Amino acid sequence: MTKTQATPHLVSTADQTLALSSLEHDQLANAKKNPIPRRHLKGPELLVIWALRVYLLFMMAVVAYQVWIATR
Q: Residue 36: phi, psi to the nearest 5?
């Protein structure tokens, strides 16, 4: 950078909050419309997700069985 160029200023959280609080409703809605891209999961993360899915299916079967037994 040359001496005539200003050094980059980092925006603090307080500054962001102040700026967002001064926006009107439609301006705030447009400012928040930044899509977040999907995250590409790796091996251990995928394993945890699939384990949770299997656990959820198992627990749904347990609850259905308990409801069926209770109604008999």
A: -100, 125
Contact 61, 53 (CB under 8 A): no
Give residue limits of the domains in the chain: 13-71
Identity of residue 54: V
Chain segment 23-71, per-residue pLDDT in tens: 788 887 787 777 778 889 899 999 999 999 999 999 999 999 999 999 9
The reported pTM is 0.51
Q: Are 31 and 20 in contact (CB under 8 A)?
A: yes
6-34, pLDDT tens digit by residue?
666 777 888 878 877 887 888 877 877 77
Quote the CA–CA distance of 44 and 56 in Å, as a whole number: 18
User: Judging by beta carbons within 10 Å of its beta carbon (0-12, 13-18, 19+), is residue 7 exposed, middle or buried?
Assistant: exposed
Tokens of 61: 């079967």
